[in-house]
Write a structure and sequence with these properties.
169 residues; alpha+beta; 21% helix
Length: 169
């Protein structure tokens, strides 16, 4: 009966297409519009980025967590997650168990991949309580640290809250 309905009905094909498109957008692929300059030069304000939502598991739509999770973000992945009810895009720079290396000589900084990332005194005091990234968490930074609000400000991000990976970057 379903085949006959689809075969003879254009509106049924349209409905099926809308349903399939909705499932793909909610669970598989989406396009994120970038706002702000925290990911410069990788992404410009107003540019778009394709998001693979199945990279780490089957995401619960509009929730920021998973039905089932089968992978964790790796270093250098550009990921999305919810922070303050907003979708955020950042780069994973350290994963669970990696050592945190700080400098407090003349200025506060966090050494990441042999580069000094500037920290305010408040950021330094908050993060320096840890010697390594806690289990089940990652440290994320914007590619433009001077304009980015990231793990330096709100701490480590749970891998359970990372709901997609940017494709092609």
């Amino acid at each position: 009966m379903f085949r006959r309905l689809l075969k003879n009905s254009l509106p049924a094909w349209i409905l099926l297409g809308i349903l399939l498109g909705t499932v793909i957008k909610l669970f598989v692929l989406d396009v994120l519009s970038i706002s702000g300059s925290s990911m410069l030069p990788t992404f410009k304000n107003g540019s778009s980025a394709p998001v693979f939502k199945l990279a780490y598991g089957l995401v619960k739509p509009f929730r920021g967590d998973f039905f089932v999770q089968w992978a964790e973000p790796q270093k250098d992945d550009i990921v999305i997650f919810l922070h303050d009810n907003k979708i955020v895009i950042k780069r994973v720079v350290l994963v669970s168990g990696e050592q945190l290396d700080f400098s407090a000589d003349s200025e506060y900084s966090l050494l990441v991949q042999q580069k000094a990332v500037p920290l305010t005194e408040r950021q330094y005091r908050s993060l320096s309580a840890f010697t390594e990234v806690p289990h089940g968490f990652v440290l994320v930074l914007g590619d433009n640290p001077e304009a980015s609000i990231d793990s330096r400000d709100y701490g480590f991000v749970s891998v359970k809250n990372i709901t997609g990976k940017i494709l092609g970057k």
